[in-house]
C-alpha cells in the first residue's frame, strides 16, 4: 500500500525552481506533457522557471493515466493497481503529431511510485512518434523523452534496484 505524502504549494514551487537549471542545461525541452491530475500543477510551475528570455513559453499537453485503486472513501491509503488505465490521450489529429517528431519532450508527474505509469507513457508516446515519423517521412529526426517528478517513493527506488 502507498501512503499519501502531502506537500505545500511552496514546497512544489521550490522543487520545480531547484530542478529547472539542470533541466535547461541537460535537456532543453520544447514540449511538456503533464500526466493528470498530479502533473498539471508542477508542469505549469516548471514552465515558468524554464522560460528563456525572448523565447515563447514551452507548450504543455495533457494525458490522463490511472494506476491507483482506492480502498475506501475514508482511507488515506491507496492500493497501487496493476494495470494502467488511459483516461485521456493526445488528440493526434488536432495536435498534428509533427509537433512531437524531433522534439525534446519532458513528461511531468507528481510522484513515481512504481515506474509503471511513466514507463507506459513513454512507451505509448514512442509508438505514436514512430507512426508519425513514418507517416510524415521524417524517420531521421530523433524525438527525446525525459521525465520530471517531484517525488520518487521508496517503493519505486526498490523497483529500480
From TrEMBL:
Q: Which GO terms describe its cellular component?
A: cytoplasm
Q: Which Gene3D superfamilies match?
A: 3.40.50.2020
Instruction: State the superkingdom.
Output: Eukaryota
Alphabetized, the UniProt keywords read: Glycosyltransferase, Transferase
Please name the InterPro entries in this protein's record: PRTase-like, PRTase_dom
Q: Which GO terms describe its molecular function?
A: hypoxanthine phosphoribosyltransferase activity
Any GO BP: XMP salvage
Name the chain's protein.
Hypoxanthine-guanine phosphoribosyltransferase
Say which species the protein is native to.
Answer: Imshaugia aleurites
Q: Which gene encodes it?
A: HPT1
Amino acid at each position: 500500500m502507498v501512503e499519501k505524502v502531502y506537500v505545500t504549494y511552496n514546497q512544489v514551487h521550490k522543487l520545480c525552481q531547484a530542478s529547472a537549471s539542470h533541466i535547461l542545461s541537460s535537456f532543453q525541452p520544447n514540449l511538456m506533457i503533464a500526466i493528470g491530475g498530479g502533473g498539471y500543477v508542477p508542469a505549469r510551475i516548471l514552465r515558468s522557471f524554464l522560460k528563456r528570455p525572448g523565447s515563447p513559453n514551452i507548450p504543455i499537453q495533457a494525458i490522463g493515466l490511472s494506476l491507483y485503486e482506492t480502498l475506501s472513501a475514508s482511507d488515506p491509503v491507496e492500493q497501487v493497481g496493476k494495470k494502467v488505465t488511459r483516461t485521456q490521450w493526445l488528440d493526434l489529429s488536432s495536435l498534428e503529431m509533427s509537433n512531437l517528431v524531433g522534439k525534446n519532450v519532458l513528461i511531468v508527474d507528481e510522484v513515481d511510485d512504481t515506474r509503471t505509469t511513466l514507463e507506459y507513457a513513454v512507451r505509448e508516446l514512442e509508438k505514436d512518434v514512430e507512426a508519425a515519423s513514418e507517416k510524415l517521412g521524417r524517420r531521421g529526426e530523433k524525438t527525446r523523452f525525459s521525465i520530471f517528478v517531484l517525488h520518487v517513493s521508496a517503493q519505486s527506488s526498490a523497483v529500480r534496484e
